[in-house]
Inverse folding.
DNA sequence: ACATTAAGTGATT
DNA sequence: AATCACTTAATGT
């Protein structure tokens, strides 16, 4: 853990803070598809991403999901930052997009470190800024793009996060991430394929134009 | 060979 | 863009 921590955060945090993180943090491995936190669950830890990627989903009361954005290396989730004052319930659902390693930090430490370490404060503010921007982008996407454009963006993002143009996903999965129906996705994918931007297979999509 | 699941399609709203 | 109803294709047992 020490090594991985240093690789990813060695340049951001001072040594004393790194030591504390090592002391109180728990290393956790998440397999692809595993849930880090679910909606309405108590937020007890703040995750520091070491590698991999996590997708952040919103969910309505019927259980319909919507992909908001991804969290990547060196990131944390700002939703947990809101919670540093006390226990609260998660507004979002976080699922590992690929195999992922995180360090879990008890949220009580967050407040304490804010006063103690400049680098921590800077990190928290930066994270806030980054998440807010991603949130705005998610809103723009929803408000201004039609389903076809959303789908293309989705494919690009997914290819980027997974570091491959060969995506393993069913039309059903995609429809659920975008909160639409499978039929719609199938038809749009067909169109996009005809435009030579992707190639379709069973359970798999090859992204050609990136 | 049969059941299950993924994907394609026309028609309707 | 969503839904229905149905078909076809791929895959697992």
């Amino acid at each position: 853990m020490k090594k991985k921590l240093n690789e990813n955060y060695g340049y951001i945090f001072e040594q004393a803070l790194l030591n504390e993180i090592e002391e109180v943090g728990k290393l956790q491995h998440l397999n692809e598809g595993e849930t880090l936190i679910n909606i309405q669950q108590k937020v007890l830890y703040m995750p520091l991403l070491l590698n991999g990627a996590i997708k952040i989903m919103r969910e309505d009361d019927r259980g319909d999901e919507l992909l908001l954005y991804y969290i990547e290396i060196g990131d944390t989730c700002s939703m947990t930052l809101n919670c540093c004052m006390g226990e609260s319930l998660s507004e979002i659902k976080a699922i590992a997009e690929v195999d992922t390693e995180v360090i879990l930090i008890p949220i009580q430490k967050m407040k304490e470190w804010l006063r103690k370490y400049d680098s921590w404060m800077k990190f928290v503010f930066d994270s806030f800024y980054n998440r807010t921007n991603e949130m705005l982008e998610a809103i723009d996407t929803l408000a201004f793009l039609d389903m076809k454009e959303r789908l293309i963006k989705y494919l690009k993002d997914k290819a980027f996060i997974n570091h491959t143009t060969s995506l393993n996903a069913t039309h059903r999965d995609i429809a659920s991430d975008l909160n639409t129906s499978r039929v719609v996705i199938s038809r749009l994918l067909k169109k996009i394929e005809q435009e030579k931007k992707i190639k379709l297979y069973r359970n798999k999509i090859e992204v050609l134009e990136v």
Remarks:
- Residues 33 and 206 of chain A are 21 Å apart (CA to CA).
- Chain A has two domains: 2-143, 146-207.
- Strands of chain A lie at 26-30, 35-37, 45-51, 54-59, 65-71, 93-96, 100-106, 166-167, 198-201, 204-207.
- The first strand of chain A starts at residue 26 and ends at 30.
